[in-house]
Design brief:
48% of the residues lie in helices and 15% in strands. It is α/β, with parallel strands linked by helices and 385 residues long.
Length: 385
């Protein structure tokens, strides 16, 4: 096998998408570049795959990570062995702090001679600033997606390149509604998006309040039609929970590929906090956002988390452009009342939509896509090696 120029490692659905976009960008800049890696279906479709099973690594929270620690240790060892066997010129570790920092440390101990590049920094501006020192110790370069990352890492001697947020790479026009309504026979119904989460633990914690809120919304607003785009790794779990639950009979599960056209046609969303909330903001979809952790994890996070909000668009704006409910406040009543207000107050919904789109415009990087800028940075690092 030809020695790879770049080995890309991703172990979660959102990172898998970043990896796929990076692969395409690298190939565009240099068609002869040798790529390998570990990832999911998106990276496989982009042409980089392996037999490494990443499904056990979709872990949420401190206590969940402790339970899965033996699996994490084994997977770190397996990933490190594969990288050392292939001896790539550089390794790109995408997001997933807990797993990736262990891989970076293991590579150092194994004597890896290439460049270790971290793509997406731990959000030290939000919590655990000490992670900046840890990252600077084990990696050679950081590709940052937030402007607020750089001041935490460069003083520690870690070179940082701001590439912008990759979630803005997807070309999206909120006015481009396509044929979604005709394909799904929506007619004059009003569309609401329901996003239960992209990890099993998120679905386990949010399914019950979401299902009850949806049932109450459907009763009060019979003109509503609910759709839920679902990632491959949690489809089975969500189908199992919803199969015999009449509360969600009118929630239509969709493939992830239909997400943006769905957003372009939606009036409102009920969403688990995460990357998708920024995507909703890009589309100008007002959202009610929720998040729940185990009691122990929440106890720790509450004392560590610095910002006043949980959604990135709210943190960036420093105000609640999206309604947020956390932990004990994630109740069917709170979700139902907030959603109802958006649906019955058209001026508020319209102004919120405009504000969300304007805020995401401020959050984008400039000069091409984030993936293209990341690819350019990686190639520059290789040329300087």
């Amino acid at each position: 096998m030809t020695r790879p120029d770049v080995f890309i490692l991703s172990v979660e659905p959102s990172a898998d998408k970043l990896g796929a976009d990076l692969i395409q960008a690298l190939k565009t800049v240099n068609a002869d570049i040798a790529l390998s890696g570990i990832g999911g279906p998106a990276m496989r479709e982009a042409g980089v795959s392996s037999d490494f099973d990443i499904s056990p690594l979709a872990i949420l929270g401190f206590t969940e990570a402790l339970k899965a620690y033996p699996v994490v240790r084994r997977k770190v060892k397996e990933a490190t062995a594969l990288i050392m066997q292939q001896a790539p010129k550089s390794v790109v570790l995408i997001d997933s702090w807990g797993f990736m920092i262990r891989v970076a440390e293991a590579l150092g101990k194994a004597g890896y001679q290439g460049e270790i590049i971290k793509y997406v920094a731990p959000q030290v501006w939000a919590m655990r600033p000490g992670r900046a020192k840890t990252l600077a110790r084990y990696v050679d370069h950081l590709l940052a997606i937030h402007t607020m990352d750089t001041p935490f890492f460069e003083p520690l001697g870690l070179p940082v390149t701001f590439v912008g947020n990759p979630m803005f790479d997807d070309p999206f026009d909120p006015a481009e509604r396509g044929d979604f309504k005709s394909r799904h026979k929506v007619g004059k119904q009003r569309i609401v998006v329901v996003l239960f989460g992209s990890r099993p633990a998120e679905i386990e914690s949010l399914y019950e309040p979401f299902a009850q809120a949806v049932a109450e919304m459907a009763e009060k607003f019979p003109e509503l039609c609910f759709f839920s785009p679902v990632t491959e790794n949690v489809r089975g779990l969500l189908e199992q929970k919803s199969e015999h639950d009449p509360r969600v009979n009118n929630v239509h599960l969709l493939e992830e590929a239909e997400k943006y056209q769905l957003f372009a046609n939606a009036e409102l969303a009920l969403a688990c906090s995460g990357t998708v909330t920024t995507q909703l903001a890009m589309a100008g979809v007002p959202a009610v956002v929720a998040y729940k952790l185990t009691p122990v994890t929440f106890f720790i996070a509450k004392r560590l988390f610095k910002p006043d909000h949980i959604s990135l668009v709210n943190i960036s704006a420093d105000k609640a452009l999206m309604r947020e409910f956390v932990q004990g406040d994630v109740t069917p009543k709170n979700l139902f009342e907030s959603m109802s207000e958006y649906l019955t107050n058209e001026p508020m919904r319209f102004e919120t939509s405009k504000a969300l789109i304007a805020q995401t415009e401020l959050m984008k990087g400039k000069g091409g896509t984030a993936s293209a800028r990341a690819a350019s940075a990686i190639l520059t690092i290789l040329s300087n090696d």
